[in-house]
Amino acid sequence: MTGRRSILQMLLASLLLPLKALAAAWNRPAFEASTIDGAKQVLDMRAEENSAQIEIVAPDFAENGAVVQIEVMSRIAGTEAIAIFAERNPVPLVANFTFSHGAQPYVITRIKMAESQSLQVVVKAGGRYYQANRDVAVSEGGCG
Asked: Which of 42, 62, 31 is nearest to 141 (CA)?
């Protein structure tokens, strides 16, 4: 019995290890920040420069802010991370994606938007930060 129990414990621990790693990668304070500047400070983002190499595909007008589909593609070499911000949302940091070496820096996701606003995307590449913005009009807010 003892041998079986220790094998089961080892198996369970090995299954839970990826969940612990995932929890460690999630930056709770950044997602709890009430301003974009606060979230950027926690994420240690600084001195973003505008870049035309960041493509944001989003509707000009969204009927319902509860479900707004956006796509982000970075053509900046060595992209390590993509963060999406919506300043007028209760929680401005909407998403933060990290990429392994060789991964294509492209995301498609659905977000909630409290109201019409400019989405801001920040890309980290080579230790530098780049940004792009996209205005989206919302007829019915999706955050409450």
From this structure: 62
* pTM confidence score: 0.79
CA distance 64 to 61: 9
For the stretch 2-16, pLDDT in tens is: 566 666 666 555 555
Q: Token digits for 60?
A: 């000009």
Residue 1 lies in a domain: no
The DSSP line for 65-114 is TTSEEEEEEE-STTEEEEEEEETTSSS-EEEEEE--TT---EEEEEE--S
Contact (CB, 8 A) for 69 and 58? yes
Domain that holds residue 74: 28-140
